[in-house]
């Protein structure tokens, strides 16, 4: 069923003078439309190149509710395929990550190469007698396109999607703060963590898009317990704080720089950032050097988030309208000293992991914000995203849409604007017309 043309459904899916219908966090039909028009079309983060160090390295992940197998092929290129056997649909690779020479389906024994082709079949004599059996057409289904940006691997199921560089647009200026502040590039520190949240994926994504407002309140007690003081005061008209967004990708930050570095002010991290600040300024300019290590939050549309400073990277994988699977990793500069990498990894685990102090604070709020919509009367109410509607500015250096101050809803509005445009647009050309 194509739900995309249902006008009544689409009428829910957009901001109305700053107000958003709560049913978008609860309705199964809205969710199905998101899978079709957002997750089956957008460029989605699937891996960091460091997770696929050599031919045969693989991992499995999600693009919407489609499980995909991401593989470093023999020629060094990266491929991604639907992780479902073309015979009876069984999941071909059940491991999360590893190294393999190929993949054998557990059901009837069909085997696939690193390039997704069907290499062999169990009981091959029987298939060999079958004239309609065309082995060349029975490989794993590849994604439409795969591309990388400075270590990050993205894929899309939509052959008509714009090139990745266009999809990210001027947001790459900001991404380079994390991905290109050192000539050695970045890597994911070893290991990842998965957890499940009973919330709609958008509530988590919009929080990382720019909800600085919650930090001083939700996390006040946790910060007090961990470091003996609350989260730094954030001012609505702080001259050095911004919400910026482009194409629905959002970054909120202040320019306090290293002085406000996250991960609980760990001395090894603080020293590393301070020692490198001049070199970063030469590489990225003074302004972006001040963004490195400052407390900020980011969402790359639709569901790939990170916290500069904390260096936690994560995807919010949708599992129905009321459930989200969270995958997290820690990003470090490849050339950072081992003790600094270690400090970042441990710091992120203490703060933003399922047992981390701050993640627990957030999860409870997001689950209750979702669950409250089970009430039929509650669900008829709307939510307000109008804070800071007059904060747009032109900035001589910052590209994209720029809003002054961290305490406003500018980025959340940008997130839902993009989301709404994608749900309504049948094609990428239609989408461009709505911008
Ligand atoms: Fe995979 Fe039959 S389902 S070999
Ligand atoms: Fe939070």
Automatic annotation (TrEMBL):
GO molecular function, a single term: 2 iron, 2 sulfur cluster binding
PROSITE patterns with a match to the protein in the record: RIESKE
CDD domains named in the record: RHO_alpha_C_NDO-like, Rieske_RO_Alpha_N
Coiled coil ranges: none
Top-level division of the source organism's lineage: Bacteria
Any Pfam family matching the protein: Rieske
Entry keyword set: 2Fe-2S, Aromatic hydrocarbons catabolism, Dioxygenase, Iron, Iron-sulfur, Metal-binding, NAD, Oxidoreductase
Record-linked SUPFAM superfamilies: Bet v1-like, ISP domain
Segments forming domain Rieske: 43-155
Family to which this protein belongs: Belongs to the bacterial ring-hydroxylating dioxygenase alpha subunit family.
Protein name (database record): Aromatic ring-hydroxylating dioxygenase subunit alpha
């Amino acid at each position: 069923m194509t739900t995309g043309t249902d006008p009544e459904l689409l009428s829910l899916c957009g901001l109305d003078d700053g107000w958003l219908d709560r049913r978008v966090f609860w309705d199964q039909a809205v969710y199905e439309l998101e899978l079709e028009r957002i997750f089956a079309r957008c460029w989605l983060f699937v891996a960091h190149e460091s997770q696929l160090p050599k031919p045969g390295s693989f991992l499995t992940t999600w693009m919407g509710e489609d499980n995909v197998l991401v593989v470093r092929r023999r020629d060094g290129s990266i491929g991604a395929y639907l992780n479902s056997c073309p015979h009876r649909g069984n999941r071909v690779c059940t491991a999360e990550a590893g190294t393999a020479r190929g993949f054998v389906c557990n059901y009837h024994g069909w085997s696939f190469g690193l390039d997704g082709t069907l290499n062999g079949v169990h009981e091959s004599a029987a298939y060999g007698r079958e004239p309609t059996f065309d082995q060349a057409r029975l490989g794993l289904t590849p994604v439409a396109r795969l591309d990388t940006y400075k270590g990050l691997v993205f894929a899309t199921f939509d052959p008509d999607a714009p090139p990745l560089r266009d999809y990210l647009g001027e947001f790459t200026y900001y991404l380079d703060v994390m991905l290109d502040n050192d000539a050695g590039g970045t890597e994911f520190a070893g290991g990842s963590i998965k957890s499940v949240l009973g919330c709609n994926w958008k509530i988590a994504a919009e929080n990382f898009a720019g909800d600085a407002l919650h930090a001083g309140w939700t996390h006040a007690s946790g910060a007090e317990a961990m470091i003996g003081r609350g989260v730094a005061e954030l001012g609505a008209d702080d001259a050095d704080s911004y919400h910026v967004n482009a194409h629905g990708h959002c970054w909120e930050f202040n320019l306090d720089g290293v002085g406000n570095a996250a991960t609980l002010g760990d001395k090894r991290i603080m020293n590393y950032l301070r020692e490198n600040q001049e070199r970063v300024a030469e590489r990225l300019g003074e302004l972006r050097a001040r963004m490195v290590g400052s407390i900020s939050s980011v969402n790359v549309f639709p569901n790939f988030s990170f916290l500069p400073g904390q260096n936690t990277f994560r995807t919010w994988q949708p599992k129905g309208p009321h459930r989200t699977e969270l995958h997290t990793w820690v990003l470090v500069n490849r050339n950072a000293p081992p003790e600094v990498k270690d400090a970042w990894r441990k710091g992120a685990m203490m703060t933003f992991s399922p047992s981390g102090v701050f993640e627990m604070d957030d999860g409870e709020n997001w689950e209750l914000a979702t669950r409250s919509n089970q009430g039929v009367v509650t669900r008829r109410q709307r939510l307000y995203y109008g804070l800071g509607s007059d904060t747009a500015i032109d900035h001589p250096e910052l590209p994209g849409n720029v809003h002054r101050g961290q305490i406003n809803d500018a980025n959340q509005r940008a997130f839902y604007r993009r989301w709404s445009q994608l749900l309504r647009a049948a094609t990428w050309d239609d989408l461009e017309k709505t911008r």
